[in-house]
């Protein structure tokens, strides 16, 4: 979901391997087993993976697939990115229902590209059923941003290794959150070229389902849907349990969302998110940017499934034992850490002087993050009046999930920005600034690797969950069941 909303509401990540209990009878349980068996058969085994595919690797895979199966696979360019990269759609099947699968809507979330590669391989097998649908796979929604993350796709999959090559665009440069809508009489959302490509695809296909493939950093897996029923939700969360990936049990990270079931939330509209942000004193337009794919596809009655999975886990996130600190002290410390990070980033940008022209995507992202971090600090201060004892899980989450995440991401992008400027025009002053920032980043990295490195989730498990969730939704559409 949208990173800015996630930061503002700073929902505590929770995890636990627990399937939803629905109180169903024996016949219902047998039906669930049958559905899960069919999903497992279609998804098939996922081979061990040690890296994510790059944009070029996925394109080469698709070109080879199209050459091997010219009567089955159609590849079409539906637009171009801001940097001139093709936005490619791969079409398989000829059914009346159209299913759209979005890979890498956020460029630091590459599980989806690996999932698409696996599903394309499975759906082109000679005996494979496309479930009466026409499938449209958008290989990579943001190839420009994805290329800026590819340095960590091959591993090692550690928090600090990822941070060193990390990039996430400013909200106004995230294609999936730039759909144009009208909110309270105001036109909101300026569509990027990538967004326009998605708009044209949605208008052309009027999809029954859009599956948007995401991943987070730390915690458990969860889902957003626009509808469904208890059986659907239990099927989704069972995929997590079967893969031994913990279920996120905290609050939804999208403001205004409600919980359908443990680990399954309603995907809110822009209006729902905006109302929730206004209620806590946050201007929703700069925070969210624009409408999402749900808002744009609503005219066609499209169901949307968002799949969020973690790269790392740690059982300490859910430790319920009382700590020796109050919630208030934990929140005040977190607010202070946010402001200190703002001071660091703003100071570096100021010292860059005329070099800071806005041409660098790292600079634009860092500048946008300053306001977000200040708002987050204010929100944490507002929650600092709680004097109850914080749980160990709450302390760990604030110190090593959220504070650690913001430090690593900001520090990594600062170093990349400084390296970029040194390649343009090196100077002793710039080299000294880079040395100073590098020492701070290395201190943060050492702390994380010593105290909260996380346990990397095997990539094949993540792919199996995403693929299974998409296929489960497709089978329910075929059977006339709600999603």
From TrEMBL:
Q: Which residues cross the membrane?
A: none
Residues forming the catalytic site: 308
InterPro entries (alphabetical) = Peptidase_M14
Q: State the Pfam families in the record.
A: Peptidase_M14
Q: Where is the Peptidase M14 domain?
A: 51-341
Which SMART domains does the entry mention?
A: Zn_pept (SM00631)
Family designation: Belongs to the peptidase M14 family.
Can you name this protein?
Answer: Peptidase M14 domain-containing protein
Organism source for this protein? Nocardia iowensis
């Amino acid at each position: 979901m949208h990173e800015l909303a996630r930061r503002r509401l700073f929902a505590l990540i929770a995890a636990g391997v627990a399937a939803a209990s629905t109180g169903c009878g024996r016949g219902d349980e047998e039906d669930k087993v049958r559905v899960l068996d069919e999903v497992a058969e279609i998804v098939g085994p996922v081979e061990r993976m040690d890296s994510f595919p790059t944009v070029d690797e996925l394109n080469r895979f698709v070109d080879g697939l199209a050459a091997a199966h010219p009567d089955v696979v159609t590849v079409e360019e539906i637009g171009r990115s801001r940097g001139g990269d093709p936005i490619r759609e791969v079409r398989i099947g000829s059914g009346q229902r159209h299913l759209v699968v979005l890979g890498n809507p956020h460029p630091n979330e590459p599980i989806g590209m690996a999932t698409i590669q696996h599903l394309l391989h499975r759906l082109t097998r000679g005996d494979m059923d496309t479930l009466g649908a026409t499938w449209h796979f958008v290989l990579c929604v943001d190839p420009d941003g994805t290329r800026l993350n590819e340095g960590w796709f091959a591993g090692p999959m550690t928090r600090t290794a990822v941070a060193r090559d990390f990039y996430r665009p400013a909200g106004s440069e995230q294609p999936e959150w730039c759909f144009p809508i009208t909110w309270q009489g105001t036109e909101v959302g300026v569509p990027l070229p990538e967004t326009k490509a998605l708009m044209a695809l949605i208008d052309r296909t009027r999809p029954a389902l859009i599956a948007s493939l995401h991943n987070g950093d730390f915690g458990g897996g969860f889902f957003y849907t626009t509808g469904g029923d208890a059986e659907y939700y239990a099927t989704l969360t069972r995929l997590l349990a079967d893969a031994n990936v913990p279920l996120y049990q905290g609050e939804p990270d999208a403001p205004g969302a409600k919980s359908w079931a443990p680990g399954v939330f309603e995907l809110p509209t822009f209006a729902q998110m905006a109302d929730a942000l206004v209620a806590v004193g946050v201007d929703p337009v700069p925070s969210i940017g624009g409408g999402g794919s749900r808002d744009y596809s609503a005219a066609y009655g499209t169901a949307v499934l968002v799949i969020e999975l973690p790269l790392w886990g740690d059982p300490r996130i859910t430790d319920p034992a009382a700590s020796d600190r109050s919630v208030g002290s934990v929140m005040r410390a977190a607010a202070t850490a946010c402001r200190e990070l703002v001071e660091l980033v703003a100071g570096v940008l100021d010292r860059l002087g005329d070099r800071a022209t806005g041409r660098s995507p790292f600079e634009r992202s860092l500048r946008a993050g300053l306001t977000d971090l200040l708002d987050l600090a204010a929100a944490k201060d507002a929650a600092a009046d709680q004097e109850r004892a914080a749980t160990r899980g709450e302390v760990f989450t604030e110190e090593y999930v959220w504070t650690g995440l913001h430090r690593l991401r900001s520090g990594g992008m600062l170093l990349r920005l400084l390296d970029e400027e040194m390649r343009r025009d090196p100077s002793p002053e710039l080299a000294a600034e880079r040395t100073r920032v590098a020492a701070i980043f290395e201190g943060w990295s050492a702390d994380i690797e010593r105290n909260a490195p996380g346990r990397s989730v095997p990539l094949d498990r993540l792919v199996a969950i995403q693929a299974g969730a998409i296929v489960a939704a497709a089978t329910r559409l075929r059977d006339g069941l709600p999603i």
